[in-house]
Design brief:
Helix content is 28%, strand content 29%. It is α+β, with helices and mostly antiparallel strands. It has a five-stranded mixed sheet with strand order 5-2-3-6-9. The radius of gyration is 15 Å and the shape is globular. The model has no long low-confidence stretch (mean pLDDT 86).
Length: 163
């Protein structure tokens, strides 16, 4: 389902942001000139025998142990590209919207995203972004809110430490 149609059907205010195609949430943040901490990325995970959707800031990565604990599962891994394409068949590769309920998935959002008033995220395509209030996102999606993400070290710091 088209994300803008879904949000309009729920009478949610949002802004559609057209931009150059972005293949990641980090690139989306750069294209939109937004801080990465306010741009949400969606990550499909395999939790035991089911899929779930993790939503976290573009500047962070999933802590699989912590997320497995939150979802109360024994094993958790990031889904393969083929699994992502089969679950999100109506989305361009690399464009995952943060609305797991549209795909029959449980959604877990990292609590750090709730710190700002707005979040931005990819729609169904890599050239469409959406900005809306976090509280509206939370009201529409009803995700589990927990802490399961850890910051990604900036490249320049990682390179210095390695050298």
């Amino acid at each position: 389902m088209c994300i803008s149609d879904f949000l309009q059907s729920r009478s949610v205010r949002f802004e559609l942001l057209l931009h150059r195609p972005a293949h990641s949430a980090t690139h989306l943040a750069g294209s939109l000139h937004l801080p990465g901490r306010s741009v949400a990325k969606a990550v499909l995970v395999r939790a035991d025998d089911r899929f779930a959707l993790a939503v976290l800031p573009a500047t962070h990565r999933v802590d699989p142990d912590r997320l497995a604990e939150i979802l109360n599962v024994g094993s958790l891994r990031i889904a393969t590209e083929d699994e992502v394409e089969s679950v999100f068949a109506d989305c361009e590769p690399g464009a995952l919207p943060p609305f797991g309920q549209l795909y029959g998935l449980q959604t877990v959002v990292d609590a750090s995203l709730s710190g700002g008033s707005d979040i931005a995220f990819m729609g169904n395509t890599r050239h469409e972004g959406v900005r809306m209030r976090f509280r509206d996102y939370e009201a529409v999606e009803s995700p589990i809110k927990a802490r399961f993400a850890s910051p990604i070290a900036p490249r320049r710091l990682r390179n210095r430490k390695a050298g």
